[in-house]
Amino acid sequence: MYYPEPISKLIDSFTKLPGIGPKTAVRLAFFVLNMKEDDVLDFAKALVNAKRELSHCTTCGHITDQDPCAICQDESRNNTVICVVQDPKDVIAMEKMKEFNGRYHVLHGAISPMDGIGPEDINVPSLLTRLKDEEIEELILATNPNIEGEATAMYISRLVKPSGIRITRIAHGLPMGGDLEYADEVTLSKALEGRREL
Amino acid sequence: MYIKDLHLTNYRNYQDLQLSFADKVNVIIGENAQGKTNLMEAIYVLAFSKSYRTSRDKELVQWEQNYAKIKGTVFKRNQTFPMEMQFSTKGKIAKLNHMEQRRLSDYIGALNVVMFAPEDLHLVKGSPQIRRRFIDMEIGQIQPVYIYHLGQYQKIVKQRNHLLKNLQRRQTNDRTMLEVLTEQLIEHAAIIVEKRFVFLDLLRKWAIPIHQGISDDKERLTITYFSSIDVSETAEREKIKTSYQSAFMNNMDKEIERGSTLFGPHRDDLLFFVNDKDVQTYGSQGQQRTTALSLKLAEIELIKSEVGEYPILLLDDVLSELDHYRQSHLLHTIQGKVQTFVSTTSVSDIQHETIQQAELFEVKNGTIIR
């Protein structure tokens, strides 16, 4: 009522973003009004392009502007290892580490019968086809350490086990640089379970 | 341990209430529907982060207000620290010693409370759910990590039941996923059941002599764990796991047919016997009450032995439900040791000295008029 229509539409759009409430939305909208027109245009274009030009890689499921994605096209990477993750953001996190040189497979979710998500609703079938075609020796399951992520990892491992491919699960335990005394009991007991010989 | 003071804001019928308590017995007196039980409930919620009367937190917030707050100062192990529970439309916030606790299992257990309400007299003859809640609550406040396993377990049961329903309706044919969820379920179920066995051993140690005392040596109480599977109470975790594995393996089709998880701690129960007779079915009302009372008194001693200090006891309208003999047995046990909150409509019919020396609070329509 107090705002002219264009700005109230803008406020409404901002509130659709995660972590943005009505007050922040108003502040952002008024900030946009004071921005240079070119910057606003670039911003709007970036938004539209991100949505339009990005798709999922048909091989690994990662977000990409070309198909297959840059990682799948990279000849220097190790073809014998695939790391299975739940989310494209997990690929980025792994890549930042610069330690892993294998391929990825993005599931886009985890199996959860409660939410009506079965194995065929996430990228499990494409993973199985991939395992048949390529020279894979190891499958690293890096799904989240919660009930659904854990169940998804166990499910995939059961399906793949008969093929003889080596299946590993990433370790659970203490964060580096943290203090032992601040760890919660569950994490600590997982860390103890996964202890190793020195 | 004891609660020094309590501050309620927009909580049920209390708009703004501040009280300081005696470290021994506090009697809350008032007519019906004035807010006695609400006050007892507030202390319970402060300890357990949820009510025993409702599962909807929203009911704790006063009408037309958007949040409710319970704040208390607790004295435990020679230290004084604040505890705080806040409820709003956004959910609940638990603060221990000024710091927000994101996991409730880090919060519960800081303040130990034993509640004895008229409903608890049904502990023996009521539904199995009441008895399961009794053990879960008690283990939870002694061993917070139990709450974590219970939470995970309940989530897996929910997932598994959904999958079983899908299999029942032939929406899926995927038994591999069922195997996965069964494996996950057994992992947590075995931990829960093992912890329950250990707890029961402790409970027996206290409850049996107490029961013998109240019944003047005439009654011998036995407590057994009734499991949905065939497993001995002395079994260790691995043994419990194998028992579950064979139960699930042999009954997969039956579970699919029913569309629900048929085995696990959520199906178990406690059985009480007095002189080898099942109290639930054959016990007199008096025997059932004595059993409930023995269990509650045992709980107090058990917490003392595990935590090192006596818990806080809430007696909500329950003294009037007990006869003089059981009343004085109860009051004698807590005398001078346990901070106790007693709610009642009148103190005149309770003759015991403990009550006569108590701090009195009179509640009228959401305020304390003393």
UniProtKB/TrEMBL annotation, chain A:
Q: Does the keyword 4Fe-4S apply?
A: no
**Organism superkingdom:** Bacteria
Q: Some GO term, biological process aspect, for this entry: which one?
A: DNA repair
Q: Which UniProt keywords apply?
A: DNA damage, DNA recombination, DNA repair, Metal-binding, Zinc, Zinc-finger
ZnF region ranges: C4-type: 57-72
Q: What range(s) does the Toprim domain occupy?
A: 80-175
Asked whether the UniProt record includes DNA damage among its keywords, one would answer: yes
Q: Which SMART domains match?
A: TOPRIM
Q: Which PROSITE patterns match?
A: RECR, TOPRIM
Enumerate the GO terms in the molecular function aspect: DNA binding; zinc ion binding
UniProt similarity note: Belongs to the RecR family.
Biological role: May play a role in DNA repair. It seems to be involved in an RecBC-independent recombinational process of DNA repair. It may act with RecF and RecO.
Q: Which NCBIfam families match?
A: recR
* Protein name (database record): Recombination protein RecR
Automatic annotation (TrEMBL), chain B:
> Which superkingdom heads the taxonomic lineage of this protein's source?
Bacteria
User: In terms of one coarse class, where is the protein primarily found?
Assistant: cytoplasm
Q: Where in the cell is it found?
A: Cytoplasm
Please name the GO terms that the record assigns under molecular function. Answer: ATP binding; single-stranded DNA binding
Q: Which keywords does this Swiss-Prot/TrEMBL entry list? A: ATP-binding, Cytoplasm, DNA damage, DNA repair, DNA replication, DNA-binding, Nucleotide-binding, SOS response
Task: Please name the InterPro entries in this protein's record.
Answer: DNA-binding_RecF (IPR001238), DNA-binding_RecF_CS (IPR018078), P-loop_NTPase (IPR027417), RecF/RecN/SMC_N (IPR003395), RecF_2 (IPR042174)
The residues listed in the UniProt record as binding ATP, with positions renumbered to this chain, are G30, E31, N32, A33, Q34, G35, K36, T37
Among the record's GO biological process terms, what is one? DNA synthesis involved in DNA repair
Its GO CC terms are: cytoplasm
Q: Which residues form the RecF/RecN/SMC N-terminal domain?
A: 2-348
| Pfam families assigned | SMC_N (PF02463)
Q: Which family does it belong to?
A: Belongs to the RecF family.
What is the role of this chain?
The RecF protein is involved in DNA metabolism; it is required for DNA replication and normal SOS inducibility. RecF binds preferentially to single-stranded, linear DNA. It also seems to bind ATP.
Write the protein's name: DNA replication and repair protein RecF
Organism from which the protein derives: Natronobacillus azotifigens
